[in-house]
Amino acid sequence: MERKPLTAARSALTPIKKTRTAAEEVEERLILAIAMGDKAPGERITEAEIARALDVSRVPVREAMQKLLLRGVLTESGQRGLRVLDYSGKWIAEVFELRMAIERIIFQHVMAVEDRSALIEDLERIVARMAAVGESADPVSLSSADLEFHRTVARHAGSKLTAQIWEGLAQHLMIVFCRDWSRAPNRAGEVQLHEELVAYLRNGSIDDLDEVLRYHFSGPGVRPPAESS
To answer: Domain 22-84 belongs to what architecture?
Structure first.
């Protein structure tokens, strides 16, 4: 009788899934701590403090803090440790100015693609998740979904360089998004904004791109009311 190869033997040699490094975990925890207000703008943080709080060695903490220093999330303190960036209105305005320029390029690339069905399908799943968590969700969950929506558009644009530049802003956006979501008076309305953006990607015109992005990126307090159909 012919012996069949064991399924377990075949699956035993599948590629090993790489887990994130300790430094990457620390980096994410620091971003969340800032986004959730556990670390205030201008507050000084040290390697020893973070290592104790997260129960890790100082080596991954040092690596994570240096990365956040290079990306502008942390700044030099003039003494031991680093300080959390002061997310002033001027700084946030600069972040969104850069975001507008980068995402305009991303959406131009995407709108030039004739078949956007795969992108639409991915985005609809993300918006459905945003709607499902709704009013009961914490700002971190909503902000993560918001970022994933725009990261997905960047990925489908097909420009690795542009996507990498967008990722350079992602951590700043996570912090700002958490604050915006926590203050949003109508989270269902914010979800609707993403539904409208999906509708634009499905049937919209490239000629309307600037207007669509300006409306989407403006804050709830300054966003003009949508025209009734």
So the answer is: Orthogonal Bundle (1.10)
